Amino acid sequence: MPSLDQVFALNGGALKLRSQRLNMLASNIANASTPGYKAKDLDFDRAMQQAQNGSSVEKAASDHTGFRVPLQPSLDGNTVELSVEQTLFAENAIQYRTTLSFLQGQVSSIKRALKGE
Amino acid sequence: MSGSMNVFDVASRAMSAQMVRLNTTASNLANARTDYSSKDEAFRAMRPVFRSVMEDNMATVDVERVVQTDAEPQKRYDPSNPIADKDGYVWEAAVDETSELIDMLETARNYQNNVQVLQTAKSLILETVRNQ
């Protein structure tokens, strides 16, 4: 019988990573007009893989954070491209919602099992 | 969401910074097309200097200071103007209205983006908290 921590490890870790990525993309959008700012992003797939192999979510996130390569570098050294950031932000928000609903599904299954319905 | 800064701080401080930028644009446009009797007292466009503030994997933006640009005021011959100097010249405020308007559009766009970030983050967090 796995512990509850193990049951929620996958989706819980994914939700944490999604939230970290949300913060990073929000930072990029906030700095869209700061000269010299370098946009950062999280490689979700690789970070998730590392988290599943037993490393902490925080470490997995910082290990797989990198700078974005701009499609068209701008003159002031800023690498934020709003179209890219907005698309990724929206995508990440949807993926956050999806993970959240998986997690809610798990919780309600366990609740149903406990109630013996 | 660890540390002392969260996504709301990031977006709200960015919005404040854009607001400062909008205020300087408004000041510049308000002072455009005003005449002065000497080059030294002529108004020069103001610009905010943005600087990103990093805190544990997040970066928001603050206005470091507001600087005056080194744009040169233009001399115009207008002897009928009461503030013209002894040779009949007045100096126009050094404001490029076209670039100010474009700057204003960009500011508004960036502000809207941050509002959108705030709304999305709010709804995601509410959904997480309301989890039955």
Largest interface: A-B, 34 and 33 residues
Biggest sheet character of chain A: 2 strands, antiparallel
**What structural class results from the helix and strand content of chain A?**
mainly alpha
Average pLDDT rating of chain A: 91
Principal-axis shape of chain B equals elongated
Q: Please state the overall shape of chain A, judged from the principal axes of the Cα atoms.
A: elongated
In whole angstroms, how far apart are the ends of chain A?
20 Å
Catalogue the unreliable spans of chain B.
Answer: none
Evaluate the radius of gyration of chain B: 21 Å
Order of helices and strands of chain B: HEEEEEH
Order of helices and strands of chain A: HEHHEH
What is the tally of beta strands of chain B?
Answer: 5
User: What count of helical segments of chain A does DSSP give?
Assistant: 4
Low-confidence stretches of chain A: none
- Helix-residue proportion of chain B: 40-55%
Total helices of chain B: the number is 2
Summarize this, please?
Helix content of chain A is about 65%, strand content about 5%. Chain A has helices spanning about 5-30, 45-50, 55-65, 80-115, and strands at about 40, 65.
What can you see in these coordinates?
The complex is a heterodimer of chains A (117) and B (132). Chain A is mainly α. Helix content of chain A is 66%, strand content 5%. A two-stranded antiparallel sheet of chain A has the order 1-2. Chain A starts with a helix and ends with a helix. The model of chain A has no long low-confidence stretch (mean pLDDT 91). Helices cover 45% and strands 23% of the residues of chain B. Chain B is built from two helices and five strands. Chain B has helices spanning 7-31, 97-130, and strands at residues 35-36, 46-55, 58-68, 74-77, 89-92. In chain B, the strands form two sheets. In chain B, strands 1-5-4 form a three-stranded antiparallel sheet, with no helix packed on it. A two-stranded antiparallel sheet of chain B has the order 2-3. In chain B, helix 1 (7-31) runs antiparallel to helix 2. The longest helix of chain B is centred in the last third of the chain and has 34 residues, at 97-130. The two termini of chain B are 21 Å apart. The mean pLDDT of chain B is 90.
